[in-house]
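Notes from hallway chat w/ T.B., transcribed later so I don't forget. T.B. wanted the structure written out for a chain they're using in a teaching module, and asked if we could keep both sequence and C-alpha cells in one place. Agreed to drop them here.
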Amino acid sequence: DAPPVLELDEEDREPAPPVNIPQSMGVSLTASTFLPPPPAEYEPEFDTSKISQELTPGRLSIRCIEGINVRRKDEVNKIPKQDPFLKLKLGTAERHPWKATSVQRKCDDNPSFKDEVVFFDILDPSQFVFNGDLQLQIECWNKGTFKEEPMGAITLSVVRFCKQPFIAYEEKLPLLYPGQKTSSSKVVVEIVFEEA
C-alpha cells in the first residue's frame, strides 16, 4: 500500500516569494555566485495560449487616486509623515518596464495620488501574457532621503478589463507585504482598457 499523502493546511504552506525580489536572490546559496545567469530560454518570448489570441491591442490606463491607511512596516501605530509613490508594471517578465507616479510629499497615511494616469500600450498582447494570464503589479513605496522603502504591493489579473473595453472600473486593492493574506492598507485606482 502507498503511504497516505499528507495534505498541508493553508497555514502550513510556504508563503509565496515576494514579486519584487530579483531572480538572483532566489538561487540556492550553495551555488557559486560566479555562475553565469540562467539561459533566456526559460522565459518564452511570447505566449501562444488561448488568452493571447482573445485579447486585442490597445492601451491600459490606470488612474492613481489615493491610498488608505498606508504605513511603513515599522510605523503601524503612529500617524506617519511619508513621501509615497506608486510603481506599476504590466507583465511579469524582466523585460517589461516599471513606471512610477510622482512622489507625494509629506503625506499622512491617506495620501492622494492626484489622479495621475499611468498607461501601458499593448501592441501585441502575447508579449505580456504569461501562464495564461495578463498581470498588473502595483507597489507602494516611500521615497526616503537615502533609500526607498516598500509599503505593500498587489498583483492582479487585468484580463477582465481588456475584455470590457472603454468601461472604467474603480478598484480598492489591498497592499500586502510578502506572506500577508489580508491588509487594512489599500490603494484606490481606476482601470480602463481602450481598444486600438
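Follow-up for T.B.: The CA atoms of residues 86 and 140 lie 5 Å apart. Might be a good example for the class.
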